[in-house]
Design a protein that fits this description.
- This protein is 24% helix and 27% strand.
- The chain has 2 domains: 283 residues, 4-Layer Sandwich (Nitrilase/N-carbamoyl-D-aminoacid amidohydrolase); 40 residues, no CATH class.
- The two termini are 29 Å apart.
- The chain is of the alpha/beta class.
């Protein structure tokens, strides 16, 4: 028996306040570690909170938020992530962290897997931001579609509506994922919308567990009446804000709900003790990348080439070619893996 204790976060970030959210992150990590958790999962763009203003205002009115959000988005090598990594090490716990990742002039909807030694084991970016998110965030690439070996098992993560993209999901399932973290934003907005609300997102998270035969850890943000004051229109909180919105939970590989949900407007952690051997039972019935697949009928490839805007190296001009410097990165040095599954 291989039993793992997992914690899923349902909490409110310090909206647009990186320092406050980092402090809260460290406190939640410490709380989970004190309860014996070996893994804690945080929501999408937990640092510094999901950018509700993208949906709440016309584009010209969003502009004042852009600089503030950018300034409160961490870099992966900055002091904020270093402090969170130290907390992971102090608690001997794996942390899956959602963040708005700042990379010079651009932002990405990132996820980090930080090991119990405090080292970053995986850095990924949302492959395709959803709808209004494209106003603020860039895209990830195939190099981020990875499942990694950790002390809690084979671990992967996706953000929000990446769980509606069948090929994205299958790219992780094909790597024999055992524990999957589903990072979701705040469902205290658009709560009545059929596809944007909490109910549909919980459904697709459960479907992921059933399809992949893996444990799925759902983490989400909430918004309070006080938090809604950060997104005011005509003196009142934006009408898209309904409040609450938490759906933190853990699903088993057979789709069973393993945790008792918190009230939708209550902050806290939900815990589940999971046995990885349960995956073998689930996959005896249906293994989508094994006996329940048809590779003779379907072919699927993942291009894991890491992409960048410019390759600094050989410069070719008419009749002139200069050799790359010793510290240059050329296209031939880029990592490429085409995985057929």
């Amino acid at each position: 028996m291989t039993t793992i204790r997992i914690a899923a976060v349902q909490a409110e970030p310090g909206w647009l306040d990186l320092a406050a959210t980092v402090d809260k992150t460290i406190a939640l990590i410490s709380e989970a570690a004190s309860e014996g958790a070996e893994l804690i999962a945080f929501p999408e763009t937990w640092l510094p909170g999901y950018p509700i203003f993208l949906w709440a205002y016309p584009v010209p009115e969003q502009i004042p938020f852009f600089a503030r959000y950018h300034a409160n988005s961490p870099t992966t090598d900055g002091p904020e992530i270093a402090a969170i990594s130290e907390a992971a090490k102090a608690g001997n716990i794996t942390v899956v962290l959602g963040l708005s990742e700042r990379d010079h002039g651009s932002l990405y909807m990132g996820q980090l897997i930080i090991g119990p030694d405090g080292e970053i084991q995986l850095q990924r970016r949302k492959l395709k931001p959803t709808h209004a998110e494209r106003m603020l965030f860039g895209e990830g690439d195939g190099s981020h579609l990875r499942v990694i070996d950790t002390h809690v098992g084979r671990l992967g993560a996706l953000n929000c509506w990446e769980h509606l993209q069948p090929l994205v999901k299958y790219s992780l399932m094909a790597q024999h994922e055992q524990i999957h973290v589903a990072g979701w934003p705040c469902f205290g907005i658009f709560s009545e919308h059929p596809s944007l609300g909490a109910s549909a997102s919980a459904d697709v998270s459960r479907t992921y567990a059933l399809e992949g035969g893996s444990f799925v850890v759902v983490a989400s943000q909430i918004i309070s009446a006080e938090g809604a004051q950060n997104f005011v229109m005509n003196g009142e909180p934006s009408p898209i804000i309904d409040g609450g919105g938490g759906i933190a939970r853990v699903y088993g590989p057979d789709g069973a709900l393993l945790t008792t949900p918190l009230p939708f407007d209550e902050e806290g952690l939900v815990y589940a003790n999971v046995d990885l051997a349960d995956i073998d039972i689930a996959k005896t019935f249906a293994d989508p990348v094994g006996h329940y697949s048809r590779p003779d009928v379907f072919t699927f490839a993942v291009d894991r080439t890491a992409r960048s805007a410019a390759q600094v190296g050989a410069i070719e001009a008419v009749g002139v070619t200069s050799a790359p410097s010793s510290d240059a990165t050329s296209a031939s040095e880029a990592t490429r893996e085409d995985d057929a599954v």
